[in-house]
């Protein structure tokens, strides 16, 4: 690795939550940070922390290309990419309109893949780079009503595993972060994305319960106390960027460790029984 290799960090989804906390933490530590969001207005204040700002929508090819070009012309290459932008398109598998399913994959998976493809030539040329993909504890188990979101995180993990092998020889390291429950706008958006519960529809009671369970976990219930703030993830992202030999996966929060361990030792029928204790099963009165 050349000492002159670019260490500039590109982060997606910095308007709120984990992306914002990561941009602030790294910029305040004196790093070169390109904070990005769909709307630059939403991140204008990050300039005071020392961030450079760019518009970037992970569903828009032109904005991704322009952002990567801007960084490459200023820095030579993107040194580290933090693929953070994402949301949960919650809802029953049968009920979520297919265009919204496509949008979910477009944002959480294809956007991440495309941006990775765009930064890799620069990283390979300088034989140094790091790609940090924000997955979830939910890449290890699935809650009913969250099938599509979990599917995107499982997909991201498979892609990261393949990529880690494929680019290691070029000096590029790939890391996956698996946060547990983090208090951000995530829960509110997941509830907002639920398909409207039809009063007499087959999933009405179920969808309402998914909304309530999400609110309980993120905002109101006893579970919400288990949640950590976004800086707990930002700290681990910093470690993943800085470590000479980063781990392939970092789990963040006690809830992530506990839930992943529980699922690993629970047979599928046992898991379904636990879920029946949490959610009304559609089709059963
Ligand atoms: P937030 O809702 O606070 O932040 C999500 C960010 O993603 C926002 O900045 C949002 O921007 C951005 N985003 C959404 N769509 C796009 C798009 N098309 N292009 C660019 N940016 C976009 O949630 P979190 O900070 O919690 O989520 C960050 C990541 O962490 C996600 O990948 C999520 O899956 C993951 N995660 C979160 C957990 C949690 O408990 N909070 C747990 C495990 C993983 P905008 O304001 O424009 O919508």
Automatic annotation (TrEMBL):
TM region(s), chain numbering: none
Residue stretches making up the Ketoreductase domain: 7-185
Keywords, sorted A to Z: Oxidoreductase
Keyword Oxidoreductase set for record: yes
Keyword Transmembrane helix listed: no
PANTHER family: NADPH-DEPENDENT 1-ACYLDIHYDROXYACETONE PHOSPHATE REDUCTASE
UniProt xrefs under NCBIfam families: PRK06182.1
Family the entry assigns: Belongs to the short-chain dehydrogenases/reductases (SDR) family.
Name assigned to this protein: SDR family NAD(P)-dependent oxidoreductase
């Amino acid at each position: 690795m050349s000492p002159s290799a670019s260490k500039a960090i590109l982060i997606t989804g910095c308007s709120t939550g984990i992306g914002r906390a990561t941009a602030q933490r790294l910029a305040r530590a004196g790093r070169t940070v390109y904070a990005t969001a769909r709307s630059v207005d939403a991140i204008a204040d990050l300039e005071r922390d020392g961030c450079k700002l760019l518009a970037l929508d992970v569903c828009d090819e032109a904005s991704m290309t322009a952002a990567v070009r801007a960084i490459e012309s200023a820095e030579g290459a993107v040194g580290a990419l933090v693929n953070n932008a994402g949301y949960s398109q919650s809802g029953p598998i049968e009920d979520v309109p297919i265009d919204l399913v496509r949008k979910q994959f477009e944002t959480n998976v294809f956007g991440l893949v495309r941006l990775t493809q765009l930064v890799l030539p620069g990283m390979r040329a300088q034989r140094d780079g790091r790609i940090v993909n924000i997955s979830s504890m939910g890449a290890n188990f699935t809650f009913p009503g969250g099938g599509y979101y979990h599917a995107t995180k499982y997909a991201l993990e498979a892609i990261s595993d393949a990529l880690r092998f494929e680019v290691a020889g070029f000096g590029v390291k790939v890391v996956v972060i698996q946060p547990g429950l983090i208090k951000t706008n995530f829960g509110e958006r997941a509830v907002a994305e639920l398909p409207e519960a039809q009063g007499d529809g087959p999933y009405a009671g179920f969808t309402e319960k998914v909304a309530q369970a999400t609110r309980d976990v993120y905002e109101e219930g006893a579970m919400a106390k288990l949640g950590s703030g976004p800086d707990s993830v930002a700290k681990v992202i910093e470690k993943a960027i800085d470590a000479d030999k980063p781990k392939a996966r970092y789990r963040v929060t006690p809830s992530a460790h506990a839930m992943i361990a529980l699922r690993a030792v629970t047979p599928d029928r046992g898991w379904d029984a636990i879920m029946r204790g949490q959610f009304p099963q559609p089709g059963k009165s």
